[in-house]
Structure formats: C-alpha cells, structure tokens
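Many introductory courses stop at the sequence. We go one step further.
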Amino acid sequence: MIEKMAESSGNVLGYKLTGTITVDDFKKIEPEVNALVQKEGNVRLLFNLTGFKWEKIDALVADLKFGHKFHEKIQKMGVVGDKTWEKWITPLARPFYAKEAKYFPSADMAKAWSWLKE
C-alpha cells in the first residue's frame, strides 16, 4: 500500500510504502503527482520504505513507467529506510526517477523533509 504522508505541502509529496506494492498503488499516486507537476512545474518526493516488503511484477513495470514519465519533473527524491539495500539503490534513482536523490535512515526523517523543502 502507498499512503500520502500528512507532512506533504507545496511541491513536496511524501509517501509511506507498506507491505507489498501493487499496480493499483501506482494508479493511485500517478494522478496526484501529475496534478502537482501541472500546477508547480516540478515535484519533490519522499518515499518512506520502512514498512515496504516487496513489489509485484506488474507494479515494478508501473514503477519504471512512473519514473520514466516524471524523471524530468522530479527535482529531488528522498528515500527513507533502514535496510542496506535501500541505501544502495538510492543512487539508481538519479538516472531513472529524479535529478537528485538522497538516502536517509528512518531516524533522520525530519532531515529528509528539510532537504526536500530547501
């Protein structure tokens, strides 16, 4: 499941990913991101992966399409989590999702929001 975080404001959107992500999750957030891009011209995203388990194959395809569609409009992407692989994959966000990406451990959630809002 992907849920919008209450701290989202302006052109900064935060999402908490929990459990197994499905293609329907991307169908839910894509219009929201698209509307914000239309309004603001760009967007900054935070993905909180602390409860993330897995992504179904069709969701992985939707994920890649999402990145391709919005790559030039995502200025910054913060990835929050506590697993080593989350830290390692964050640099891959630059060529596929965002112009700039940075990893934050979950204890630094406030720093992630601050960085995105700079």
